[in-house]
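We now fix the convention by which a protein and its fold are recorded. These numbers are not coordinates but entries in a learned vocabulary of local backbone shapes. A record is reproduced here so that you can trace the correspondence yourselves:
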Amino acid sequence: MKKGRLITKDHIVDDLVRMGVTKGMTLIVHSSLKSIGRVIGGPVSVILALEEAVGTGGNIVMPTQTEHLCDPTEYGSGYSDEELELIRENMPTFHPDLTPTSYMGFIPETFRKQDGVRRSPHPHTSFAAWGEDAAGITQEHGLDFSMNEHSPLGKIYELGGCILLLGAPTNSNTSLHLAEYRQTNTFLKGKIWDVKIKKGMKEVWTTYRDINNESDDFDRLFEDFHRETCYVRQGKVGDAKSYLIPMKLMVDYAVGWMDKNRN
């Protein structure tokens, strides 16, 4: 552990409550364990603190995306043709209970394994949820347009959920992808993704349709929203600079912002 004060689960609960987290709240959480500091119990203590803060009548949701299951050529591989064929043939399909996350961090990777946590079935953009509405948030997650109003993001929006950036960078705010499907401009073009799924007794490669989601300007969007509205609550959770934001208000703002600033 790095030097600094020791942080307990109860410290984290107190910090969350001080920021405005209440019983019954639905939170979609983006997190950085390192930013929180020297947490006794590590990610387990953070998860238990989040769940205690919202109570059994609330919900905790985290992105559990699996970029490593994309076609090996998607991000430029450097593999030979023979290697690409071998990878595609032997790539496993998505298993909600088994497949690890990609680049999500220690907290969501631990969270997805917890007894009682549900995980949505999308092979690339799954979400895990705990709480009263976990089944409803995750049970349906179609392949096409995977972060639109019918996805877990749309369900959190309808539940009046909040975004919690728990030491995470402001450009990691997955909820803003929901706004991209509501833009009236043509910044985002269509995209076809390759994906391996189970069909009957066989595992086969197929495709699904989506938009080419973009997050490079999410930090600028956050800064403008923070400056122009009074909806962002800021505080420290452990040592982590954190933000609590009403999801609906930010997503609605983001639609207009994207129409104006993306061209």
In short: The two ends are 46 Å apart (CA to CA). The chain has ten helices and eleven strands. The chain has one domain: 6-66+96-182+216-261. The chain has a mean pLDDT of 95.
